[in-house]
Automatic annotation (TrEMBL):
Record-given protein name: Malonyl-CoA:ACP transacylase (MAT) domain-containing protein
Compositional bias segments (type: Acidic residues): 180-190
Residue intervals of the Malonyl-CoA:ACP transacylase (MAT) domain: 18-189
UniProt superkingdom: Eukaryota
Region (Disordered): 162-190
Protein source organism: Timema podura
Length: 190
């Protein structure tokens, strides 16, 4: 199928890059993208970095094994390496976003996009985050909500000028972490 592309000279709409988090991966997610040389070169560079850590990124991205992403480390490095490659690709195409946003592991894609991290630093941050998830005794199905209490002024406003209701936390013992499960019950753990 041949497509004729023409340049639209009208109103410019904003372009945003959205860097997704966990759950956006699927078996074989990168196999079709590797046909683009810029992407395959970026993935190869990431593969070489992870090879030193004992991971085969090419296999992780190309595998159609439905169990490949049951290993959270594979998910972290798979998503991150694809995001790095897509940023590289967009830069070669001279597509510069008006903004970008990331969630979870996608925040690493943002760090690469804005130059805070190199590709290697981004990938290694994903690797070690995944490794920490594997090596930590996590409670299945739980998510931690960490609240920043520092930075509140005496009037109850935080450093972003949004109001913070201190009464909600008056009876909460120090150093406890609120954990929520899928039933929305709140439990606390020291």
């Amino acid at each position: 199928m041949n497509l004729l592309l023409t340049r639209y000279e009208g109103l410019k709409r904003p372009v945003w890059f959205i860097f997704s988090g966990m759950g956006s991966q699927w078996p074989g997610m990168g196999s079709k993208l590797l046909q683009f040389p810029i992407i395959s070169e970026s993935i190869q560079r990431s593969h070489d970095i992870l090879k030193e850590k004992g991971l085969d990124l090419i296999n992780i991205i190309n595998s159609t094994d439905t169990n490949i992403f049951k290993n959270i480390l594979h998910s972290f490095v798979g998503i991150t390496s694809i995001q790095i490659a897509l940023v590289d690709f967009m830069m070669v195409l001279d597509i510069t976003p008006d903004g970008y946003v990331g969630h979870s592991v996608g925040e690493l894609g943002c760090a690469y996009m804005d130059g805070c991290f190199t590709a290697e630093e981004t990938l290694l941050a994903a690797y070690y985050r995944g490794l920490a998830s594997i090596e930590t005794d996590l409670i299945p199905g739980y998510m931690a909500a960490i609240e920043r209490m520092a930075g509140l002024n005496p009037k109850g406003y935080n450093d972003t000028n949004s109001y913070f209701d201190e009464t909600e936390y008056e009876n909460r013992p120090n150093n406890q972490l609120g954990l929520e499960d899928s039933d929305e019950e709140t439990r606390e753990r020291d």
